[in-house]
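Hi all, posting the design record for the shared folder.

TITLE: backbone redesign
STEP: 1 of 1
STRUCTURE INPUT:
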């Protein structure tokens, strides 16, 4: 990590996988106080992102219709834009095989997406994604459920058909990243399906770091 010019590599604290960015112009910026007085990575919404293609990580991610979850503690600084913006997720070739959390265009609510092979299912929320939020997408063979700040906001049925060639922070996880996030990320997590009790504990912990 190079703080003076931005972050070129961000290491996972669980198994040491690194999300990297070779282009200096696309490095997110780290600050020990940017997330309401706590550490955070800031993405400019233009080209900043970090991507992991470590095969050991990718082969362990929930794929197909296997259950799994995406979580992030993040801040959205863009309340405009006529498109979707992606905060965190993984994919292979397109949104048809992706799992992603981010925000919809208008109104600016949280959303989660999963690919079905021939298309994708997008679940939008009901809470404005302004400022800091805890967003969670829970995926299973029955479909997906979206949570914002610990509360369920939407769900849709469908059978995921996801694959993983890369994990991306602050962008759509395609070979050529796009739909860049504008704001700050403080935590990014991929988990197996969590029980209601474990999910409540994790949500409580992240909400305590959110500092409303």
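Okay, here is what came back for every position:
SEQUENCE:
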């Amino acid at each position: 990590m190079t703080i003076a010019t931005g972050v070129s590599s961000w290491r996972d604290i669980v198994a040491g996988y690194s999300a990297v960015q070779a282009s200096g112009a696309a490095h997110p910026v780290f600050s020990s106080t940017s997330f309401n007085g706590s550490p955070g990575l800031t993405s400019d919404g233009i080209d900043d992102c970090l991507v992991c293609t470590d095969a050991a990580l990718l082969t362990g991610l929930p794929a197909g219709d296997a259950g799994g979850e995406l979580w992030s503690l993040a801040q959205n600084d863009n309340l405009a834009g006529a498109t979707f913006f992606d905060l965190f997720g993984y994919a292979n070739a397109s949104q048809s095989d992706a799992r992603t959390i981010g925000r919809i265009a208008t109104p600016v609510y949280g959303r989660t997406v999963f690919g079905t092979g021939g298309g994708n299912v997008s679940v939008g929320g009901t809470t404005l994604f302004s400022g800091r939020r805890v967003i969670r997408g829970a995926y299973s063979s029955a479909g997906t459920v979206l949570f914002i700040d610990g509360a369920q906001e939407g769900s849709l049925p469908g059978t995921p058909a996801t694959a993983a060639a890369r994990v991306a922070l602050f962008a759509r996880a395609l070979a050529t990243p796009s739909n860049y996030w504008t704001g700050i990320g403080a935590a990014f997590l991929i988990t197996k399906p969590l029980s209601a009790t474990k999910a409540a504990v994790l949500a409580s912990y992240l909400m305590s770091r959110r500092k409303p």
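COMMENT: Helices lie at 55-58, 196-210.
Let me know if anyone wants the other runs.
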